[in-house]
DNA sequence: ATAGTGATTGACTCGTCAGTCAGGCACTCC
DNA sequence: GGAGTGCCTGACTGACGAGTCAATCACTAT
């Protein structure tokens, strides 16, 4: 069956997510992935040229979806603040839906300046740029102050999101649904409203 | 000479900073550190029980200084906003003074949820707590809004700083002095003032 | 001198793992 | 039924690198 073949590949990718999340990319063995997938060691190399290629595939698959979501928000006719909210919402929901995958992407790629972060820098930058464009539009429309550089603000926004995800990842708790919703609101409130009162 | 002994230990630590920054902790070999230090392989194990212990030492040495600086700012009678500024200033200056060391701390420890971040979680948390206390004081004094949770705001603040450092680390440029000063101001402006205009 | 102490050396050991490969299995088409 | 094709298997290899250790050196105290 041809669908069986595709299934095995998926099986390996999904197993890799769990293993990378649990043990980390550097610490896990390829045999751990094969075992987790319930598949022979060699089969991993039938579908992927190397261990790295598995991580690359996982990252690119998911990041593309995220870029699309960001660009969709940016292209909508929502108010700038609501566009940011939509992005925060999408990323938080990504974590909610598949925390292991988001953990792998954040810990092993996005924050790994030495290894894969370097390789995928361009993809990562593309996300920043889209967010910066939203801020710039808001500034042009006069709803955001122009004192802060748009790129810098985008960094602050994305940095805060990643910080929240990291906090969740470290904590290893089961996050309750209302915390997800609360954080979405707090996040935008923090970036837009600031601390001064 | 007894000072020679201490010198060799320092020599190894300083070499390790350069090697970790250049190649990353996981990718480098202990022999790389020994070579960089101009010292025999075995001597590394005379001063340190393991490769990890070198990284631990580097992190703890520096983090202690940082915690002290944060607590000093928090204990000062500066306005809350100026206390935050002092902290931002200290961390930015740390990067300015020794970018390699800060790179190692951020990339290999602070952002590494699987390996060393886990081990040093307590130390890292201590920094967050001190910053959160500053925000809470500001809120109690009425100069900061109470809409945002103090811990969350501290996360945003530290997250933004780390994001800026990461940006510098990735970029591999020589950062001009005025950019350091500009960022210090922009950072506090962003967190306190927010985007809304 | 001689012995003792701690620094220093680098060749060696030993476990670990990414990646290979020779073959087995299932399914199809003549 | 036999030959071809692609999926699948897991034992094996070869490299690599952390940590060990026995020997040497430098310096001090007796």
Layout of helices and strands, plus pairs?
Two copies of one chain form a homodimer.
Chain A (H helix, E strand, L loop, with lengths): L1 H22 L6 H8 L3 H7 L3 H25 L4 H18 L1 H12 L5 H4 L1 H20 L9 H22 L5 H17 L4
Helix pairs in contact in A: 1-2, 1-6, 2-3, 4-5, 4-8, 5-6, 5-8, 5-10, 6-9, 8-9, 9-10
Chain A binds a DNA duplex (30 and 30 nucleotides) through helix 1, helix 2 and helix 3.
Give, in order, the helices and strands of chain A.
HHHHHHHHHH
CATH architecture of the largest domain in chain A: Orthogonal Bundle
The number of distinct β-strands of chain A equals 0
Q: What is the average of the pLDDT values of chain A?
A: 93
Greatest interface (CB-CB under 8 A), with counts per chain:
A-B, 51 and 50 residues
Quaternary structure of the protein: homodimer
Number of domains of chain A: 2
- Beta strand % of chain A: under 5%
- As for the CATH topology of the largest domain in chain A, it is Tetracycline Repressor, domain 2
Identify low-pLDDT runs of chain A.
none
Report the span from N to C terminus of chain A. Answer: 65 Å
CATH superfamily of the largest domain in chain A: Tetracycline Repressor, domain 2
**Quick one: biggest sheet of chain A?**
none
Please report the first level of CATH classification, the CATH class of the largest domain in chain A.
Mainly Alpha
Indicate the percent of residues in helices of chain A. Answer: over 70%
Number of helix segments of chain A? Answer: 10
Structural class computed from helices and strand pairing of chain A: mainly alpha
